[in-house]
Protein 1
Amino acid sequence: MRRTAVKNDERITLATFLQPAAYLTPFMLGILIFTVYPFINVVLISFREDYKVLSREFSGYGLGNYARVFADPTFINALKNTAIFVAAVVPAATVISLLIAVLLNSKIKLQGLFQTAFFMPMVTSVTAVGLVWRWLFNFDYGLINYLLSLFDIGAINWLNDPRYAIYSLIIYGTWSMLPFTIIILLAGLQNINPQFDVAAKADGASPLDIFFRITVPLLAPTIGLVIIVNMISASKVFMELFPLFGGKPGPAYSLYTVIYYMYEQFYVKWRLGPAAASAMILFLIVLVFTLIQLLLQRKWKNY
C-alpha cells in the first residue's frame, strides 16, 4: 500500500508539469527569440539571391552567395588568417595555462595574489588592454622591442609590417585567452583526488611522471573542454583587431578574419547575402572540428 501511494505521488500530472514549465518559459523564450530565430534567419538569407536589406526582397533561392564568397580572394585570405590564428593560439594558450594552473594549484607563497593577477584580464576592458598591447608593440619605444634589443635583435615593426602583424595578433590573442583557460583547468586540478599523487610518490614516481601519467590523463576531459571552447572563441577573432590596428584588418588590409569579413560585408557594403553565407561557412567548419574533437576526446578517457 505504501509503495502504491509513493508511485501515485510521483505520477506526472498537468499541475506538476506546468510549474517547472512556467519557470523555464522566460528562458526558453529568450533562446527562441535571440538564438534560434536569428540562426534560422541567417540560414535562409544565405540562400537568398540578391537580397535587399531594407525591402527584404530577393530574386530567389540558390547557392549564388556561397559561390560569390568562395570566389572572393579576401574571404579566402580571411579563412587562412583565421585558421593560422586558431592553430597557433589554442595550443599555446592551453599549454601555458596548464603550466600556470599547476603552479597556482601548488602551495606557494602569495598564492592568492598570483591568482588575482592572472584573473584580472577577465574583468578588464578589451579595448583598454588592446591599447596597452599596442604600446607594447610600438616600433620606436615599445617594451617588446626594447627587450629584444637586450639580445641584440633588431626592432620589429609588429603593427605596420604585414609579415609580422599576424604574430602580434597571435601573441595578444594567446594572452587574452589565458585567464578563462586557467580558471577552468585550475578547477579541474582541484577536483583530482590528491591520494593519486600520494600513492605515486610512495612508489617513487618523479614529479614529471606524476604530471604526465596521472595529472594529464585525469585532466583530459577538462583539457578537451577548454580546447573546444577556445577553438570556437578563437575562430571568432574580431575585437582584437580594433585596438591593435586602429579598426582596420591589419596593415595594408592583410589581416582579414572571417568575422571581420562578415562585418565589412554587412555594415560597410550592405551585402547581407554574402555576410550570411560566410557566417554559415564558418559555422560548419567549427561544427565539423568540434565533432572531431568530441570523438577524439572519448579515447582520452582511460579511467
Note: Residues 24-62 form one domain.
Protein 2
Amino acid sequence: MLLKVNDMGKIQDDDKLYSFLKHFVDHHTRRSFKRFHVIGKENIPKDGACVFGCNHCNTLMDALVLLATSRQKKVFIARGDIFKNPVTAKILKWLRILPIFRIRDGIGAVRDKNGDTMDQAVDVMHDEVPLYLFPEAAHRTKHSLRQLSKGIFHIALDANRQFGHEKPIYIVPVGLEYGDYFRFRSTILVNYGKPINVTEYVKEHEGENEAVIINNLKAILTERMAELITFIPDDEDYDAIWEMTKIKAGYIPLTQKMRLLRNKRIVANILRFKEKEPEKAKTLFEKVNEFTKHRKEEGISVSSVALRTPFWRTLWKTLMVLVGLPFFIVAAVVSCPIWITASFILNNLKDKAFRNTVNVCVELLLHPLVMATGVTLLFCLAPWKIAILGSVYLYFSYVYYFDYSEYVRLWISDLRWTFHKNLRKEFKELGLFK
C-alpha cells in the first residue's frame, strides 16, 4: 500500500544536512580509488520506476560506491539485524537505509516488520527515487554470484500491482568490478546493464503462478548481473582460474572497461579449455594452485608474475622509489594520525572484506582534522605563499603516502620475482604464455 502524500517522515524526503554531507562523503569515496569509472548509465530507464540489483562483494564500500555514482538521491535496503539498536536504527533511516529481515532474525521480525519495509520500498519507487538492493543478501569477495534472494522481485511485483498501470516497473542489474577487494586506492568500475521491464514481462506471462514468474525473473537477473562483471563459476577451480586470468591479463595500461572485457575473454577461453580437455585442465589447475601457494609464501604479488621484462621494470621502479622517498617521509609524518589509526584497526580486523571500508571511513573522519590543524599552523608559522603550497601538499599527503607505500610493496615483490630463479622456472613450466 502506497504511503499517503501527507504522511510525515518519508525516507526519501529531502534533507539539507544529508545533501550537504553526501557531497563530502562522495568526494572521499571517489578519492579512495585511483580510478572511479561509471558506464552504462544510458541503460537506466527514464520512463518508469526502478529498483537496482547489484552484486555484493565489498561490504559497506559497495553502497558508498553506488552512492557516489551520481548526485541523485538513493535509498538502500540492508539486512535487518544491524537495526536492533534503536539509536542505530534512527541513524540508518536518516542515511536512507531500510531494513529487511531474514528467517535467521526470527519469524516474528519477518512477519511484523518486513511488511512495513515493503510498503516504504514501493513508495520510494513510486516517487521515482532509485532503490538499491544487494539480492545476494551477503557480501563475498569473489568474482562470482551467490543465489539471489527473492526480496527484490517481491518489491518489483508489488510495485507493479499497485501502480504498474501508471508507469512501467524495471529491475536494473548493476555490476561492481573492483581492481582489488582489499587494497585501498585500487580501481572501481560501476557497470549498469540492460533493464528488465517487469510490467511488460508480467503482461506477457499473464496467468502464470507468481512463484514461477519470480524464478524466471531471478534467472534473467542473475544472467544479466554476471554479464557485467568478471564472472567465474564458484567451484573447486575458481582460485586457479582467477590466478590465470590475472596473469594472462597482465598489467598493461587499459581503461577499466577494456580490462573487464579482457578478463571476460580470458575466463571464457579457460572455461572452453576446461570443457574440451577436462583432464589436462585439472592437471594445469592443480599446478597453478601449487604455484600460487609458493608465490604467496615468498611474498610475491601476481602483478610481478605478469611482467614480461621484470629486470628492466624493477630497475625503473628502483629509480622512482629513490626520487619519491623524501616526499614520502614528509607525507608519512603529516598524515600519521590517519595511517596509524587505520593500521591499528586493520590489525585487529577479523573479516578482511572490511579493509577498504575501514580505510575510507578513517580517512573521511580524520583527514578534515589533519587539514584544519595543518593549515592553521602553516598560516601562523610560514609566509603565505609557502603556507598555500604546504596546504596543497597536505591535502594530497595521505593519498601520496598510500600510493608510495603500495609502489614500494610492488617494487619489493618485483625484486623477489626477478631473482627467484626456482619460482620463475616453476612458472615457466606452467606454459601460460604459450
Note: The chain has three domains: 16-227, 238-297, 310-430.
